[in-house]
């Protein structure tokens, strides 16, 4: 019962992050499932089955708050589903000994990317209003869907920053559209895992608990996306993913690091993680202060003709 309650909290927290940041439900949930010794393919299958419900709830919630661009959903979601099915069948064919460190390496790479991307650069906002083309979204969807299945997460970490970097869509609509299109990816990945694994390796009680936690968090996250600082949240989540997957890799047969080396690695990552969060907080406050000054100056400019008259 305690394990199920913990999984429910994981599902809630992961969806809260995913719905407000546009990424990290699968990466966070799969990372924690791997940390407790779950078979990699079964962990990814469990998370993707739960995501069928959480992404449906999240997409609906984002739609209600006006955060979804359905043209983008169609252009990236279908190729994403194709890539996800291919990735699921590929992961199912790997042995556990090979799959566990491979998946942790993928998750670690995504975690480092999230940490650096949000800490150093925040969210770009140029080129708003320009259309997003199929020639950009189709290969992005194929790649993100494949990574999502093989890594147990990656649809958001790959898709969200790529579209944000284009600067052509408002951040809240990027997040809402990625969350809505992930419904197609979750279905395709789940079908792929059933083809490759069958159902005997999947604990459906875990799926249900993750799903319940995620569904409860979905509407809250859709509302928070307009208020929470994504830069700070991205730094926090990225550091957590890096720390957890470094732990998995250091304990794997690939490395099998001594205890002292592990301790030094964890402390180093913790210091970098704390510094990244502190830097993101400082930059966020600086940006907000600059916005306030610019708004005040704009208000003064608007009042000048009235004053002179």
Automatic annotation (TrEMBL):
Family of the protein in this entry: Belongs to the 4-toluene sulfonate uptake permease (TSUP) (TC 2.A.102) family.
Compartments where located: Cell membrane; Membrane
Recorded coiled-coil stretches: none
Organism: Nonomuraea corallina
Protein name from the UniProt record: Probable membrane transporter protein
Membrane topology: Multi-pass membrane protein
Matching PANTHER family: MEMBRANE TRANSPORTER PROTEIN MJ0441-RELATED, MEMBRANE TRANSPORTER PROTEIN YTNM-RELATED
Spans traversing the lipid bilayer: 98-116, 180-198, 204-225, 232-250, 262-281
């Amino acid at each position: 019962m305690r394990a199920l309650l913990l999984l429910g909290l994981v599902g809630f927290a992961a969806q809260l992050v995913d719905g407000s940041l546009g990424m990290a439900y699968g990466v966070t949930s799969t990372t924690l499932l791997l940390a407790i010794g779950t078979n990699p393919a079964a962990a990814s299958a469990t998370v993707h089955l739960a995501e069928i419900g959480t992404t449906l709830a999240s997409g609906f919630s984002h739609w209600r708050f006006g955060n979804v661009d359905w043209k983008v959903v169609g252009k990236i979601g279908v190729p994403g589903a194709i890539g996800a099915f291919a990735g699921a069948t590929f992961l199912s064919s790997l042995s556990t000994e090979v799959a566990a460190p491979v998946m942790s390496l993928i998750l670690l790479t995504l975690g480092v990317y999230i940490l650096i991307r949000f800490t150093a650069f925040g969210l770009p906002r140029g080129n708003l209003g320009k259309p997003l083309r199929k020639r950009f979204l189709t290969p992005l969807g194929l790649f993100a869907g494949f990574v999502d299945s093989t890594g147990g997460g990656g649809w958001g970490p790959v898709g969200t920053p790529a579209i944000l970097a284009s600067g052509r869509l408002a951040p809240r609509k990027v997040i809402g559209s990625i969350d809505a299109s992930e419904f197609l990816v979750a279905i395709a990945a789940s079908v792929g895992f059933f083809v490759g694994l069958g159902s005997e390796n999947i604990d459906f009680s875990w799926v249900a608990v993750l799903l319940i936690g995620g569904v409860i968090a979905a509407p809250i996250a859709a509302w928070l996306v307009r208020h929470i600082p994504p830069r700070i949240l991205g730094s926090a989540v990225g550091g957590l993913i890096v720390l957890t997957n470094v732990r998995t890799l250091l304990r794997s047969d690939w490395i099998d690091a001594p205890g002292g080396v592990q301790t030094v690695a964890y402390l180093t990552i913790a210091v970098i993680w704390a510094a990244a969060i502190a830097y993101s907080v400082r930059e966020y406050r600086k940006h907000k202060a600059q916005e306030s000054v610019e708004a005040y100056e704009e208000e003064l400019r608007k009042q000048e003709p009235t004053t002179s008259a």
